[in-house]
């Protein structure tokens, strides 16, 4: 498709359960959001001798210019995500043509719903529309951009969710084999899915995240395994009392909860799914210590209003809460929870009812005459 404009779309994600398990080679159960990021890439005309990328976003005032030989540290701010993708592609031997990239997104930024991976995946799909590498390769390139160019030590959860998600589907991801298994996740009048954006983000997330990752690596070393995935489910009991033991207990019990939750979802047993989610929240709060007073208040309020299950979702220290509830409780949560949280002295959260949305796509950008985008999965 040389010379034609390309449009790529990649959704944000919400993780139903399985937090900080990805870089420990464990399990998670995310869905793709019905909100996503669209990138329009217009390669320079053949013959134009300019291989810079010029990126703009409706969400940001600054235009970002990315040189062909960009290196980590060259570009900061939001442009680092785009520059990181170009850098990772070139490091992996892909050829990229210069041109313009325009970003437009409906994913809330910094809400723990992975606007960052949506941006990376959409940029990478647009820039590789000719070569079409497989989606695991795209996920690895996006992670490399985020880890080594942006400097955020995240795992592969966000990217795999965005690339493989589908309508009314959850994904059981095994981060050791990188197998992605779809599980039907159809919502109806009985069961609703809410995402509650706390609209508060912690300031030192990268440092906290790196500390948790280092603790998990230390726990694995003390247990004599390469990763916590290789440890037995009760191995944490042999570690001395203290934070390393608690971190290991979260990861090992969380992996078991993800498998329980996946089984419950397959059986459409939303009560059992809720039990696993509630236990996951307690484990994140008490053992992994990544929750906040406001997030805990939102989880408690959702439970008080009848939620089947409620837990923080995403890396932690703010962000969003994911809730399953029957229709009556979902209405009560939507109507009453924000006031409860404001009355407790916190920022007003935003409640959204969602269902799992489509995964990432790439195709030709629509012309002025044709409304629809030709899409390929
Ligand atoms: P999350 O992924 O939970 O939304 P992150 O801190 O990981 O939060 O990523 C948010 C960052 O990603 C933003 O601060 C910005 O730099 C970049 N970003 C995400 N979406 C966009 C967008 N539409 N336009 C420009 N930058 C974006
Ligand atoms: Mg992110």
UniProtKB/TrEMBL annotation:
Residues 7-41 form the Galactokinase N-terminal domain. It comes from the Bacteria. One of its GO terms (molecular function) is metal ion binding. One of its GO terms (biological process) is galactose metabolic process. Residues 81-165 form the GHMP kinase N-terminal domain. Residues 262-339 form the GHMP kinase C-terminal domain. SUPFAM superfamilies: GHMP Kinase, C-terminal domain, Ribosomal protein S5 domain 2-like. It is an enzyme of class 2 (transferase). Residues 355-377 are annotated as: Disordered. Pfam families: GalKase_gal_bdg, GHMP_kinases_C, GHMP_kinases_N. Its EC number is 2.7.1.6. GO terms for cellular component: cytosol. Belongs to the GHMP kinase family. GalK subfamily. PANTHER family: GALACTOKINASE-RELATED, MEVALONATE KINASE/GALACTOKINASE. This is Galactokinase. The lineage of its organism: Bacteria, Bacillati, Actinomycetota, Actinomycetes, Mycobacteriales. The gene is galK.
């Amino acid at each position: 498709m040389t010379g034609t404009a390309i449009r790529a779309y990649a959704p944000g994600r919400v993780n139903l359960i399985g937090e900080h398990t990805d870089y420990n080679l464990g399990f998670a159960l995310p869905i793709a959001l019905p909100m996503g990021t669209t990138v329009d890439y217009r390669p320079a005309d053949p013959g134009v001798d300019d291989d810079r990328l010029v990126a703009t976003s409706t969400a940001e005032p600054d235009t970002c210019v990315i040189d062909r030989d960009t290196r980590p540290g060259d570009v900061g701010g939001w442009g680092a995500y785009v520059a990181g993708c170009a850098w990772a592609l070139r490091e992996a031997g892909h050829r990229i043509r210069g041109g313009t990239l325009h970003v437009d997104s409906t994913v809330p930024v910094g809400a723990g719903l992975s606007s960052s991976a949506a941006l990376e995946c959409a940029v990478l799909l647009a820039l590789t529309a000719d070569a079409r590498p497989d989606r695991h390769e795209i996920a690895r390139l996006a992670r490399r951009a985020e880890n080594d160019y942006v400097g955020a030590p995240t795992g592969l959860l966000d990217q795999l969710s965005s690339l493989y998600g589908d309508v009314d589907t959850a994904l059981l991801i095994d981060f050791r084999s990188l197998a992605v298994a779809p599980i039907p996740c159809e919502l109806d009048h009985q069961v609703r899915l809410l995402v509650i954006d706390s609209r508060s983000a912690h300031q030192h997330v990268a440092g906290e995240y790196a500390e948790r990752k280092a603790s998990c690596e230390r726990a694995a070393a003390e247990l004599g395994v390469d990763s916590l995935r290789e440890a037995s489910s009760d191995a944490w009991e042999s570690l001395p009392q203290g934070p390393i033991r608690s971190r290991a207990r979260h990861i090992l019990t969380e992996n078991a909860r993800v498998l329980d939750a996946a089984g419950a979802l397959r059986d459409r047993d939303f009560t059992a799914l809720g039990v696993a989610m509630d236990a996951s929240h307690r484990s994140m709060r008490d053992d992994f210590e990544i929750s906040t007073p406001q997030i805990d208040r939102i989880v408690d309020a959702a439970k008080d209003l009848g939620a089947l299950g409620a837990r923080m979702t995403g890396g932690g220290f703010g962000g969003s809460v994911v809730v399953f509830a029957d229709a009556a409780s979902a209405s009560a949560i939507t109507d009453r929870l924000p006031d409860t949280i404001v009355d407790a002295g916190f920022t007003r959260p935003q409640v959204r009812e969602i269902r799992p949305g489509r995964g990432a796509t790439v195709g030709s950008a629509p012309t002025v005459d044709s409304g629809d985008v030709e899409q390929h999965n």
